[in-house]
DNA sequence: TATGAATGAGGCTTCATTCAT
DNA sequence: AATGAATGAAGCCTCATTCAT
C-alpha cells in the first residue's frame, strides 16, 4: 500500500521528461550553448513547469550528474576495486565507460554534432572518483607509482575521445582493447627515468 | 609594389583588434558562452564596426582558425614531418600544443573556466591535420601500424586533458614528457595481438 | 439557533487566516507590490484554496476594508459623534488613527517600507467617513464653518504623515497632541477673512 | 558652433519621451504598480530602447526626482530663504508647491486616479529640503520652537492632500490661503504647554 | 569607414489561475 | 472543500543586427 498516486507518478514522469530532454539538448548544443527554453521546447510541457522541478539549467545539470552517479558509477567502481592487476583495473574501467556510452546511444540516438560538444554532465561526473581509485591502486601496488594527477588526466582524455568514437558507432570492445593496451604498455615507460628531449 | 595604404593598414589593424579580443573572450567565456557584444566590449571599437569585418561570431571563429593555421600549424607540421623517430614526432606535437596553451595562459591570466573552455578554434584547428600526419608517419615506418583513427583520438584526448593541467599552471615540460612517454611505451603494445580480458 | 457547524467554523477560520496574512503582507510589501502568491505563502494553505474564498487580490482588499469597517470605525465614529468640543472631536479621531497604526507596528515589527505603504484598505476606509462627520460637526456648531472639503484633506494629510512617524516608532500621545493642537489653533484662523500675500 | 547634432537631439528627445511617459504612468498606476513595460508602452519606442537610457524603473524615478530638483526646488527654496515672517515662509512654500502641481496638470492632464496614488517622485523629492529650511527658520526665530520633525511631517501632509485637490482642478490661491492660515493659527498653539486629553 | 542608438526577437522567470485528484 | 502541479501570459532584460549620421 501507499502506492504512488496517479499524480505522484505524473510528477516523477515529468521530471524524467525534462531530464531526458536536457540530455538530448545538452548533447546537441553543448551545455553552454543550450538554453532552458531549448530544454522546454524539447518537451511537451509548458515553460512554467520547468521551474516546478528545477531552478536553473545548472540544477538540471546537477540532477543529470546525480542520476549517473546512481546508475553507472557504482558498477564502474566495483569493477575497479575488484581488479587484481593493472590490466584488470584498466580494462574494467574503460569497458564500463564505453558500455555506458553505447547504452546511451541505443536509447537516445545522437544527432550529428561537432566533436567539441562532449561536455555532457554524465560523462564528467564519473571521473571524479577515478583519481581516488588510482591513488588506492598505486598504494596497493596494482599500478606503478606514476604521477596520479597526470595519469588521471590521461585516462580521462583517452576515455573521452575514444568515447566520442563509440558514441558515433565505434565498437566497444575495440575501444576498450585499444585504451587498455595503450596504458598497459605506457605505464612502465612512465616510471622509467626520463631521458627525453 | 603597392605597399598597403594608410587606410588599408588601419583596416587591417581593426581586424586584428577584433580577433585579439575574440581570442581573449572565447578563452574566458568559451565560444558558446561568449557574445558578439562581449567581443566588442573588449575592444575600443563601436558595435557597428564589428560588422564591417565579420558577419557573425562564427565567422570570427573561422578567422581565428585560419589565423592559427597560418601562425602555429606550419611550425608544428614541419617538426612532425621532419621527425626521424616516433619520439621526435610525439614530442614535437605535444610540446607545441602545451606551449601554445601556456602562452595563452600567460596573456590571459584569468581562466576561472573549467574544462569546457577547450573548444577554441585554435585548439581544434591544430588537431585537424594530426590524422593526416599520423598516416604519413605510419606509412613512413616511423610509427607502428596501429589504428590511426583511434590513435588520433587517444593523442587528442591526452593532449586535451593534460592541456587542462597546463592551463591551470602545470609544467609544460612535465606534461610533454609524460604524454610522450605514455605513447612511446604504449605504441608497441597496440600492435601486439590482443590477449586481454 | 443554528450554531455554526464544525465545517462552517473551519471555513470561517481559513478566511480569517487569509485575511490576516494579507494584512501582514500588504503592510510589508504594499498593496501593489504584494502578489496573491505572497499572501498564500504567508499561510499554511494551498494556492487553490485562496480561490475558494476570494476571486482576486482586490477582493481581499475589499474584505479587509469591510473588516475594519466592522471592527474599528464604529468606535471611532461613536467618539466623534459624542464629542462635545472641537478638541474632543479632533483628539478622538487622531488618537484612534495613531493607535491603529501603533497596533499594526506591534504585530508586524518589520516595516522597512517607506511612505508608500500607507495605502492599506484599513487606512483608507477609515477616512471615508471623516468628511461626513465633519459636516455634521460643523452643522452642530462644534467646529467653525470652514471649507469641509479642504479641512478633510488637511486632516487626512496630517494624519498620514504623522502616522508615518508613529509607524517608525513615534509616540502615539505626542503625535495626537501635536495634531490636535495644530488644528485647534488653526481652525479659528481659517474662518477669518483672508489677508494673506 | 558645436550645436547638438540631429542625433544628439533625438537622444535627448527620447529621454524626455521616456520621462514624460513615466510621469504619466506612475501617476496613473502608482510607482509600485507600474512596470517598465507600462512605461515603454506609453511610448512609441521599442522595449530595448528603454535600457539605453535607464537601468530600471528606480532609475527613472531618480531621474524624475532630479528633474524636479532642478526645476522647482531652487525657486521654492529661494522663496523660503527670503521670507521674513512665518507667514511669508509658509505662504511661499505652499504657493510654490501648488503652482507646480497646477503647471503639471496643465501640460500633462491627469487621468482619473484613486487618491492613494499620490506617491509620485516629483512630489516626494521636494520635501527633503523642507526639514532643513524649517530648522533654519526656527533657529532664526522666524518660526516658534516646535518639534521640527513633526512640523515637517504636518506641512508635507497638508501640502500633499491639498495638492491632490489642486491636481484635480482645485484653486491654487484657495489651497495656499487655507494651508497658510491653518499653520499660522496652529503654530502658537503648538508651543503652548499641553493641556489636552 | 566608424559610430552608436534603435530595434524587436528571444531568453529567463514569476505570476494568477485552473483543474484533476 | 483542499490540494498543489500545470499552464501560458506577461514582466524583465540582453542580444544581434541595422542604419542614419
Task: Please characterize this protein's 3D structure.
The structure is a homotetramer of 197-residue chains. With 197 residues, the first copy, chain A, is an all-alpha fold. Chain A folds into two domains: 6-64, Arc Repressor Mutant, subunit A (Orthogonal Bundle), CATH 1.10.10.60; 72-191, Tetracycline Repressor, domain 2 (Orthogonal Bundle). Chain A has helices at residues 6-29, 36-41, 47-53, 57-71, 73-82, 86-107, 121-139, 148-167, 172-191. In chain A, helix 1 packs across helix 4 (57-71), helix 4 crosses helix 7 (121-139) and helix 7 packs across helix 8. The longest helix of chain A has 24 residues, at 6-29. Chain A is elongated, with a radius of gyration of 19 Å. The termini of chain A are far apart. The relative contact order of chain A is 0.11. Chains A and B meet through helix 8 and helix 9 of A and helix 9 and helix 10 of B. Chain A binds a DNA duplex (21 and 21 nucleotides) through residues 5-7, 10-11, 14, 35-38, 45-52, 56.
Key phrases:
Tetracycline Repressor, domain 2; DNA-binding; 9 helices; Arc Repressor Mutant, subunit A; homotetramer; 73% helix; 197 residues; 2 domains; mainly alpha
Amino acid at each position: 500500500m501507499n502506492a504512488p498516486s496517479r499524480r505522484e507518478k505524473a510528477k516523477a514522469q515529468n521530471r524524467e521528461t525534462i531530464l531526458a530532454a536536457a540530455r538530448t539538448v545538452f548533447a546537441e548544443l553543448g551545455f553552454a550553448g543550450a538554453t532552458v527554453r531549448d530544454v522546454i521546447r524539447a518537451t511537451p510541457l509548458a515553460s512554467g513547469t520547468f521551474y516546478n522541478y528545477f531552478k536553473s539549467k545548472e540544477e538540471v545539470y546537477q540532477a543529470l550528474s546525480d542520476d549517473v552517479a546512481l546508475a553507472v558509477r557504482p558498477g564502474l567502481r566495483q569493477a575497479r576495486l575488484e581488479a587484481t592487476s593493472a590490466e584488470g583495473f584498466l580494462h574494467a574501467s574503460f569497458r564500463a565507460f564505453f558500455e555506458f556510452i553505447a547504452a546511451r546511444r541505443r536509447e537516445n540516438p545522437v544527432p550529428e554534432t561537432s566533436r567539441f560538444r562532449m561536455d555532457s554532465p554524465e560523462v564528467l561526473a564519473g571521473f571524479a572518483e577515478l583519481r581516488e581509485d588510482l591513488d588506492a591502486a598505486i598504494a596497493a601496488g596494482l599500478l606503478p607509482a606514476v604521477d596520479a594527477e597526470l595519469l588521471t588526466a590521461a585516462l580521462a582524455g583517452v576515455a573521452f575521445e575514444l568515447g566520442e568514437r563509440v558514441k558515433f558507432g565505434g565498437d566497444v570492445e575495440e575501444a576498450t582493447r585499444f585504451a587498455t593496451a595503450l596504458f598497459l604498455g605506457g605505464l612502465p615507460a612512465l616510471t622509467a627515468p626520463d631521458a627525453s628531449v
